[in-house]
Structures are given as structure tokens and as C-alpha cells.
TrEMBL record:
This is Arginase. NCBIfam families: rocF_arginase. Its cofactor is Mn(2+). It catalyses: L-arginine + H2O = urea + L-ornithine.
């Protein structure tokens, strides 16, 4: 990479959040180390990127208790998300691109509220791509489990407990119109009604089947400009389970390897990616770390790896 290109490349910070505090199965706490074992840092550095690993955040252990008033482990979830919020906001303030290594997807409350706060301070617009099998728009009234990893988008949009929705200093942290959900194929009945009520833009798997990933991503990325901060929240259960077994909440019928690669490559083509979550990787369900290796492969595509041979 030339010196000029190296100056333009993002400075990347890896932040581990080793907890399964919001999940319904243990094991996502091992996700950050699995991504490191799969050579995430050296893979990105091979593209000429400067990558610093900030290590792991600390937070309360998982007490593994039943729900209280519709929430499992609310105090612990708040503590972890507060730590994530401060760490991600600090890296953005240094002009760096944070990659949050989860951990379960409840941690997106902390990361995306930090990104939204940064955008307010910098006068930027925000676009969130939510790559997931689930809409994650449950509330304590709607949830069948009380697991907060099914609630982060609702909390970010102001539908949740005060202690979570106020992280970041503004309620709601984001406008639902800033979000594009891709790959959705598991939504609870009450959750579906709420998603329609707030008019969340969802490209579910039927849409992708009918219209293709290329058209889906063209719409999801439409109207991005130089003043838009693009955040990608990548839940590994977005992928079809046969290629990505290492998650606790598999749902059949997700994107194939090539569809996922196209998704990531089209995001990379925008040049707007400014922050990233990699969530719900659970080595307890994986086979020889294959899902972590695949996740690193896809993250590499977000930062410029391409099979493109056309002139």
C-alpha cells in the first residue's frame, strides 16, 4: 500500500466484550477470543491497515437467573453496555474505527448509542445496517424469554427500561428510519406489530429471495453521502446455519456464503464504513472454530478483500 493510501486507511481498534449476559445460551463470552484465534488482527493488517487490540472490557459475571419484570440480568446488562458505550465513544473521538467483538447482541445498545452520540457531536448523519436473523425489537411485555439480546433495536429506538434507553444521553438514541435490517427470518408476533408500528425498514429473507442480495443492498445503502457514518451490526446468526453453526440462536434459511460476501463487498464499495459490531459468535456450538474463521473472512471483505476480476 502506498504512503498516500495508508494515510487514508482507517485506524482500527478491536474491543472485546466477553459476555453472554443478554443471551439465552452460555458461550458468546468466548467469542472475542475465538475471533482473535481466527487471526482477525493479522488478516486486517495484511491489507495495510493499522490495527490496535485494546483487549477485553470488564463487567459483571453472568448470574444465570430467571427474568424479573420481563428482563434477565438487567443491572448486569446496563453495566456491560455502559462500558461498551464509553469504550466505543472514546475510540471514535480519537478518529479510529472501533470493531466491537461480542459477546451477545444486547451489547449493540452500548455501541450504537455511542455511535449516535458521536454523530450528534460531529454533525454527521447515521445509517445502521442490522445484519441478523432476528429483528431484536422485543420489549419486556412482548418477550417470551426476557433475554435482552432480543431487545437492542427496541431499546435504541426508545422502547425499553430507562437505565438502557438513556445510555448515550438522548432518548431515543436513534431514529428507526436510520436502520436497515437485512436477512430477518425470525420475528415474534407481538414484535412484528411493533416493527410495523415504528415503520422499521426490513429486508427479510423472502425479499432477498425474490429480489436478490444486490438489489437489497442497493436499497439499504441508498442516499449515503460523505457526511454519513455507516455502522454495521453483524450478528453471526445472519448466516445460514450450515456454514455458520457457531451461534446459540440458529435459524434456517439465511444468506449463503456468496450472498454474504456480496453484502459485505457492496458495503466496502461505499467507503463509508465507520464502526462495526461482530456479535453472537458462540464457540460452544462451533466446529473447530469454523464460524469464527468465516466471520473473519467476511470482515476482511468489509475492508476491501474482493474476488472482483473485471477491469
Amino acid at each position: 500500500m502506498s504512503a498516500d493510501l495508508r494515510r487514508l486507511a482507517p485506524l482500527i481498534s478491536l474491543i472485546g466484550a466477553p459476555t453472554d449476559i443478554g443471551a439465552g445460551a452460555r458461550g458468546a463470552s468466548m467469542g472475542p477470543e475465538a475471533l482473535r484465534v481466527a487471526n482477525l488482527q493479522s488478516t486486517l493488517e495484511a491489507h495495510g491497515l493499522e490495527v490496535v487490540d485494546r483487549g477485553n472490557l470488564a463487567g459483571p459475571r453472568n448470574p444465570w437467573l430467571p427474568p424479573t419484570e420481563g428482563y434477565r440480568h438487567l443491572a448486569e446488562v446496563v453495566a456491560w453496555n455502559t462500558a461498551v458505550h464509553e469504550a466505543v465513544h472514546a475510540e471514535l473521538g480519537l478518529g479510529r474505527l472501533p470493531i466491537l467483538l461480542g459477546g451477545d447482541h444486547c451489547l449493540a445498545i452500548g455501541s450504537i448509542s455511542a455511535v449516535a452520540r458521536h454523530c450528534r457531536e460531529a454533525g454527521k448523519k447515521l445509517r445502521v445496517l442490522w445484519l441478523d436473523a432476528h429483528a431484536d425489537f422485543n420489549t419486556n411485555v412482548l418477550t417470551p424469554t426476557g433475554n435482552v439480546h432480543g431487545m437492542p433495536v427496541a431499546c435504541l429506538c426508545g422502547r425499553g427500561p430507562q437505565a438502557l434507553i438513556e445510555i448515550g444521553g438522548q432518548v431515543p438514541a436513534i431514529n428507526p428510519k436510520w436502520v436497515r435490517q437485512i436477512g430477518i427470518r425470525s420475528v415474534d408476533a407481538g414484535e412484528r406489530r411493533l416493527v410495523h408500528e415504528v415503520d422499521l425498514e426490513v429486508f427479510d429473507m423472502r425479499y432477498i429471495d425474490e429480489m436478490g442480495m444486490r438489489h437489497t443492498m442497493e436499497l439499504a445503502l441508498a442516499t449515503l453521502d460523505a457526511n454519513t457514518h455507516l455502522h454495521v451490526s453483524f450478528d453471526v446468526d445472519f448466516l445460514d446455519p450450515p456454514i455458520a453453526p457457531g451461534v446459540g440462536t440458529t435459524v434456517n434459511g439465511g444468506p449463503t456464503y456468496r450472498e454474504a460476501q456480496l453484502c459485505m463487498e457492496m458495503i466496502a464499495d461505499t467507503g463509508r464504513l465507520a464502526s462495526l459490531d461482530v456479535m453472537e459468535l458462540n464457540p460452544a456450538f462451533d466446529v473447530r472454530n469454523a464460524t469464527a474463521v468465516l466471520a473473519v473472512d467476511l470482515v476482511e471483505s468489509l475492508f476491501g478483500k474482493s474476488t472482483l476480476m473485471r477491469k
